[in-house]
Task: inverse folding
């Protein structure tokens, strides 16, 4: 994380507030604090925000305010952010049916790491993962903090289609596919939750800066949650951040 | 009933507006028109809101059969439009009768063109926009490109057409890209390149590759060398970002770009030049020229002022029912009305660049021969100076 933020022109309609050039929870927490502050204290003329690992890209309308004015307002906001309490993230529980048809590569991940399938599930579902940012495709979370004991290379031949909700591992990363796409990740489970629903408000299950924990469930629980999700009755479950 | 039916979908025809803002934090691309400028002008011509949804057509336009009388406007690339086989105008609203067929011969100049309908295209708003993002099936007409059999409706139906269709003044017509370089603002990662890399970027010409689409335009040319690798910690990508990949080649990211990415961005194309880039075809070449953010903002304001003047003119002429046409017989002006009862010829003098044609007509009335001097004056839709 930098000692002082950098304000970088990103064309004539965006300004990047860069807080570091590392992937660490500290830098990302500073990104989240700025993002939350900008949401809570909207600057007239700011049209969109793109928070990422280490910066917030502030999209603005130059017919409303110019770079210098935006720079000034952001500097003032950053000063109030660093003086205030950091925002507490929520931790969203993600139910996952591991193995079987839902996670065809679970046994391979276990064999590759000389573990049993149950051990892989226990290790994968133990930590709270930080959602550093959402990107790549709508609702796709970039997660940090996977245990290196379950690292597994990608498939030699990517699958042509992976169902929405698939939970996978690729090298040091774990993630969830929000929509059905081709892909080469090792699929170890399936969540019944909808990570991206264009008709929902907000459309994404997760917010940047959230924590998540994977919670193992059985087939009956999976089926029950699927029904609740379809009826719009499912309530997102959260737990205290660690 | 719809306004038109799609007979052929064309190469890549989608519904687009100014884009979907407020959801990039969730990884949802902005989308929207590639040539926002042309989209806005097409809407202005019809008296629409500038951000109403229109059809974006690419290279090979669709074939559309109109199911009701309406007024349309085409702006952007000249894809050689034809209405019932006769050449149809660009940059001007025109009447289309039920049963008419709108077709396109192919690109004469540019790549993307926009068809606006009265009040915009009637598709549902999704997450604040009607823009289509095909990859996730968002917005537009069922989230996809238009296909044969699709039926599209205008928001305003059965309205009387404007009797004085304005034409876009020359000062507002897009300039050809080859007339001058694409202007860019340096950054956000211009410090990630060698001085030789920066020099190559500004002194070379780059060719637009076949691999160019709504996500971005890939360019080919002398490599732009990095000082410490092409990868960065992923961050947000602005519209027009010139990303330099590991092979030193630029990719300029456009409407359907991903929200974040992990390649260095040497510079960003300024807003007023993005439409010119959007209109480049594979094989065209581009060069780059750096300007300050302040200069980019000044250019944008000048463009907005010119557009506003034109919009005011269009709206004013619609309000006053000025016909822009004047018919005089033996030097006496006559008022005339069209089939909808709108003023088709006005008696007040015309302004601007008036074209006058004169004919002498001899007619026999009640057995007596009469000779009339008929003058038709047309202001060509010229806005006031």
Result:
């Amino acid at each position: 994380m930098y000692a002082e933020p950098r304000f970088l022109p990103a064309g004539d309609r965006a300004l990047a507030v860069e807080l570091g050039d590392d992937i660490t929870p500290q830098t990302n927490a500073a990104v989240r604090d700025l993002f939350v502050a900008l949401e809570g204290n909207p600057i007239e003329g700011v049209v969109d925000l793109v928070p990422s690992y280490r910066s917030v890209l502030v999209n603005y309308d130059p017919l409303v305010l110019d770079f210098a004015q935006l720079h000034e307002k952001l500097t003032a906001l950053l000063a109030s952010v660093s003086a205030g309490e950091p925002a507490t993230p929520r931790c969203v529980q993600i139910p996952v049916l591991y193995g079987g048809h839902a996670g065809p590569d679970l046994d391979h991940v276990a064999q590759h790491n000389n573990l049993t399938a149950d051990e892989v599930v226990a290790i994968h579902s133990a930590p709270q993962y930080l959602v550093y940012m959402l990107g790549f495709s709508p609702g796709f979370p970039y997660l940090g903090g996977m245990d290196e004991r379950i690292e597994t290379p990608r498939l030699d031949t990517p699958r042509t289609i992976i169902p929405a909700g698939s939970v996978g591992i690729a090298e040091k990363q774990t993630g969830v596919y929000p929509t059905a796409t081709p892909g080469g990740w090792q699929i170890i489970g399936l969540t019944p939750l909808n990570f991206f629903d264009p008709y929902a408000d907000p459309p994404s299950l997760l917010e940047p800066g959230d924590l998540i924990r994977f919670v193992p469930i059985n087939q009956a629980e999976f089926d029950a949650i699927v029904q609740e999700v379809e009826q719009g009755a499912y309530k997102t479950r959260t737990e205290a951040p660690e | 009933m719809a306004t038109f039916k799609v007979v052929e979908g064309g190469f890549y025809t989608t519904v687009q507006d100014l884009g979907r803002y407020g959801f990039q934090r969730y990884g949802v691309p902005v989308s929207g028109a590639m040539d926002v400028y042309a989209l806005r002008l097409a809407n202005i011509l019809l008296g629409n809101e500038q951000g109403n949804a229109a059809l974006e057509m690419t290279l090979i336009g669709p074939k559309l059969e109109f199911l009701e009388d309406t007024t349309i406007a085409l702006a952007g690339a000249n894809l050689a439009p034809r209405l019932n086989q006769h050449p149809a105008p660009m940059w001007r609203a025109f009447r289309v009768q039920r049963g008419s067929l709108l077709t396109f011969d192919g690109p004469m100049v540019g790549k993307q063109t926009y068809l606006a309908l009265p009040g915009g295209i009637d598709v549902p708003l999704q997450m604040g926009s009607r823009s289509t993002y095909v990859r996730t099936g968002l917005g537009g007409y069922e989230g996809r490109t238009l296909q044969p059999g699709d039926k599209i409706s205008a928001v305003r139906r059965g309205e009387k057409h404007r009797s004085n269709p304005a034409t876009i003044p020359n000062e507002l017509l897009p300039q050809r890209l080859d007339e001058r370089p694409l202007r860019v603002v340096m950054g956000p990662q211009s410090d990630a390149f060698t001085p030789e890399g920066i020099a190559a970027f500004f002194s070379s010409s780059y060719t637009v590759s076949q691999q160019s689409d709504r996500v971005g335009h890939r360019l080919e040319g002398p490599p732009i060398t990095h000082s410490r690798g092409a990868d960065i910690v992923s961050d947000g990508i602005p519209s027009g970002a010139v990303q330099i990949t590991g092979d030193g080649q630029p990719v300029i990211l456009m409407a359907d770009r991903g929200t974040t990415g992990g390649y260095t961005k040497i510079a960003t194309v300024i807003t007023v030049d993005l439409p010119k880039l959007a209109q480049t075809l594979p094989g065209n070449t581009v060069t780059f020229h750096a300007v300050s953010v302040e200069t980019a903002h000044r250019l944008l304001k000048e463009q907005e002022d010119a557009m506003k003047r034109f919009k005011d003119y269009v709206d004013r002429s619609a309000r006053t029912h000025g016909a822009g046409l004047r018919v005089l017989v033996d030097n006496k002006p006559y008022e005339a009305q069209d089939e909808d009862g709108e003023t088709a010829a006005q008696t007040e003098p015309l302004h601007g660049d008036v074209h006058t044609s004169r004919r002498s007509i001899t007619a026999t009335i009640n057995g007596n021969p009469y000779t009339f001097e008929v003058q038709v004056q047309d202001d060509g839709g010229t806005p006031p100076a």
Remarks:
- Chain A touches chain B through 46 residues (CB under 8 Å).
